[in-house]
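Hi everyone,

Forwarding the result from last night's run.
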Amino acid sequence: MCEMSKGRVLVVDDDGLVAGMVQTLMVQEGYEVVGVVGDGRAALEAVARYQPDIVVMDLQMPEMDGIEATRRIQEICPTPVVVLTAHDDLQLTAEAARAGVGAYLVKPPNGRNLARAITVARARFEEAQLLSVNNADLEAQNRDLGAFAHTVAHDLKSGLQPIVGLAQLLKEDLGEIPPEHAQRYLDLISGDGRRLGRVVDDLLLLAEVRDRELTLQKLDMAAVLTESQARLSKMIEERDAEIVLPEQWPEVWGYGPWVVEVWVNYLSNALKYGGLPPRIEVAWTADGAEDKASPPGYRFWVRDNGNGLTPEEQAQLFTPYMQLSPTEAEGHGLGLSIVQRIIEKLGGDVGVESVVGQGSAFWFSLPGVDPGQASDSEGDRVGTHSSVTVRVD
């Protein structure tokens, strides 16, 4: 009976005769009645206990009426509700709908109408749940956009102010400024201009990550790292950094150009916040290899020899657009937000492990390649070969 039923029903009515009739109709229509209770308070306990697929409930009951019981049911254990009423009252119906009632019937019901009401209530419940999820997502996106706009505005303003100030200084006093000072001002203007260009590049990358549908490819991670280090060669040389790499790499699915950006971000942060001189260890570990039914994912690490981060700082790192150091316009904030978006879209995760005084280890994970799909063939992407088409939403 349970396997073939159309759903599990809780019947709530203080009139034993009506409750018995509803129970009989439900069984005749192919539903399983998991419980019968006589008032709204008992209904709350029964919903939590039985977790029915639908509640059929009288509107007028002692202790707690059907509208209040429905409101509380939607708070503790959201469930489709059909109410039974002795009178067709439009005002009461509207109040019931606001409380979360999906359909109502005037007593006495018949089996066919009761089954139809259940279908309607379930459909409206699913729509309401989907709307609630969409509204929550929209609120989160609005908060995200607000924080994003604040950080980008800060970065742009902090870059524009010295450009405008130095340009004005050159305009007003160019004839009196020593040539070496003028050259220094021009270098500063040029550097700030390049930094603003990188902010724009970050904006474009965020838009691409959000909107693009792509083909995941098997990555040649050694080649990806080579390109990432080449992008940072000047910083590595200036800081006399030591970077230790593994001798071998696992095969993972990803998208080469985006994973290059991830490594550039992690490595540049390790260079900026590491020790003097920075010593950076790049490593990988299997992630989920115990699941023999599917290929494991892999976790990639960047460990630095810096001062480390407090638990409070770690908790804020991947909060959208947070920036720990107000003196570093290219600090942890926007870059780590981009990293998180990229890796989540590629099917992985990000995180950090750190102890104050012992450095930090930033990591990201990517799905592993099934050995059955690991045949090699040349591809046209940087640091990639072979491919599999995957829709990434």
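The domain at 8-132 is CATH 3.40.50.2300 (Rossmann fold).

Cheers,
N.
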